[in-house]
Amino acid sequence: MAGGACQRLEGPPLIRPATPADAAVVADIHHHGWTDSYRGLLPDAHLDALDADACLARWTSAVVDGTPLEVLVAELDGRVVGVVTAGPSTDPDATAAGEIWDLWVAAEARSSGVG
To answer: Of 2, 16, 45, 78, whose CB count within 10 A is highest?
Structure first.
């Protein structure tokens, strides 16, 4: 996606389980998702204080340990451009066994159909 321009997908992205090698790009997508998406909605000081290293540690643990999360990534042209996690439902009254906990898409792939 040259120049950061978003293009509509012509086919589905490759969805696969995340590996430890994906942790850094997943953390980057998550960190920038927060700082980009919530700018103007949350105080800048809060967003500017978000720790990218802590985000990397969280995602490294999630990808390596996996439990209770299932971490999947979306690839376009061999590059990870999205991440989704699912785990047990946090609602004690839910009839579903699980729920999506995170869904983040890299800026250059937003509105492309990856999410």
So the answer is: 16
The distance of Cα 31 from the centroid of its chain, to the nearest Å, equals 9
Listing DSSP states for 87-114 in one string gives EE-S-TT-SSSEEEEEEEE-GGGTTTT-
pTM for this prediction:
0.81
Q: 38: helix, coil or strand?
A: coil
H-type alpha helices, 1-115: 23-37, 44-48, 52-65
**How many Å apart are CA 78 and CA 46, to the nearest integer?**
33
C-alpha pair distances (Å), 79 with each of 35, 60, 106:
21, 18, 10
Separation of alpha carbons 93 and 95, rounded Å: 7
